[in-house]
Amino acid sequence: MLPASYTWSLAAISIAVAFAMLWSFKRCSDQARIQVAKRKIRAHLLAFRLFANEPAQIFKAQGQLLVWNFRYLALMLRPTAVTIIPLALLLFHLDAVYGRRPLHPGESAIVTAQLTGASQSAMAPLSLVGRNVTVETPALRFPEVQRACWRVRAAGAGPGDLELRLPDGSIAKTVRSGAPSIYLSERRVASLLQWFCYPGEARLRDARVSSIEVEYPPAEIDVFGFGVHWLIWFCLVSLIAMLALRKRLRVTF
């Protein structure tokens, strides 16, 4: 498990995220119309009990309930769209800190190189060499999906490097082993869009390779002596913080 400092730093981030989401939700939503929609929904639900012996009124209340439910969902679309993209990017970066751990000395991992437009003959010369990292197997090539894999082993604690050798060049990829690091770069990518999710290393400039990935082991954080996935702790603390701050910030949803 990761040290306790990771648990409480993630809790602090979760509270900050809850505050930011509430603030952005309030700024980007029509709070007055949301309150009206919620009151209408409650009123039509209450009508089911008030007119239990009048089928015509029940059917009318059901129709109105559907209408106001759709209106409520429509009012939620804009604030949800505003918050979901930054939140998704943040989750990628948090996973690089809390979701994976470096290799232990002597521990093995799989390295995958994803190529673009490479034929079977072009994949044949591919090789991988390492510094402070031992390459244990020859390349396992999958020409149908333009992918090559190796098994590597951390030779000792501390940073290491891998070098993917192509017929007329090479590409580097860092490998971390030993103590937990602040930010673990699992994948080095060429696409600008993917780089926003994996910014730990510079983008690949060779058009023949779209990504190089080291499959680091999953990590757990220490929550009162129990190993818990970081996303569970993040969601739990964020939810509690949002419920606690909702009235203070005067946000309805």
Question: How would you briefly describe this protein structure?
Answer:
This protein has helices at 4-28, 31-50, 55-99, 120-123, 192-195, 230-249; strands at residues 108-115, 127-131, 133-135, 140-142, 147-154, 160-166, 169-175, 187-189, 209-214, 221-223, 226-228.
Structure description:
This protein has helices at 4-28, 31-50, 55-99, 120-123, 192-195, 230-249, and strands at residues 108-115, 127-131, 133-135, 140-142, 147-154, 160-166, 169-175, 187-189, 209-214, 221-223, 226-228. Helices cover 47% and strands 22% of the residues. The protein folds into 2 domains: 4-100 and 229-249, no CATH class; 108-214. The strands form 3 sheets. Strands 1, 3, 4, 5, 8 and 9 form a 6-stranded antiparallel β-sheet that branches. A 3-stranded antiparallel β-sheet has the order 2-6-7, with no helix packed on it. Strand 6 and strand 7 form a beta hairpin. By secondary structure, it is of the alpha+beta class. The two termini are 36 Å apart. The protein is built from 6 helices and 11 strands.
